[in-house]
Every structure is written in C-alpha cells, then in structure tokens.
Design brief:
Helix content is 64%, strand content 11%. It is mainly alpha-helical. The radius of gyration is 13 Å and the shape is globular. The termini are far apart.
Length: 87
C-alpha cells in the first residue's frame, strides 16, 4: 500500500517550489551534470513533473487548497529545492 500525505496551501507554499521554477533555466552544462549525479533518472523525471506543476501553481493558477502526494516525494522535493537554491 502506498502511503500518502496531504498538504495544505500553506504547507505547499512553505515547501518553496518557486525556487525550482525560478532556477530551472539556470541549469547549464556543468550544473546539469551535477544535477544528474545527485538525482537518479526516476528522481529527475519526478522533479521535472513537479516543476511543471509548480510552474502552473506559482505563475498561472495559484496553489491548490489541498494537495495529496506520496510520502516519499516530500523529502525528494526538499532535496531538489535545496539544490536549486544553490544555483
């Protein structure tokens, strides 16, 4: 059974996915190689999927009131936010 967690709008905002949205285009060749070393292919795909969602939430629609995700996804997103914050 897959365990899920539900995040409120405030919790999603505190996750700071906007950092990924703002920094995504800064991945040049050197930084892309570092990104590829730090994250597996499956993790990179998931981060890219959440980048697209975060882009919509941050720049187009606004964050949803509640959002459900797998409990394993939250630590990955926090790692990704920390990485993108260093760019």
């Amino acid at each position: 059974m897959i365990s899920c967690i539900e995040l409120s709008k405030e919790e999603l905002t505190k996750l700071q996915l906007a950092i990924i949205v703002e920094s995504w285009d800064k991945l040049n060749n050197r930084k892309r190689k570092e990104f590829n070393k730090l994250f597996t292919e499956a993790e990179r795909k998931l981060i890219h999927n959440y980048y697209k969602r975060a882009y919509r939430w941050y720049l187009v629609k606004g964050y949803p009131n509640n959002y459900r995700m797998r409990s394993t996804t939250l630590p990955l997103l926090k790692r990704a936010v920390n990485y993108f914050a260093t760019l």
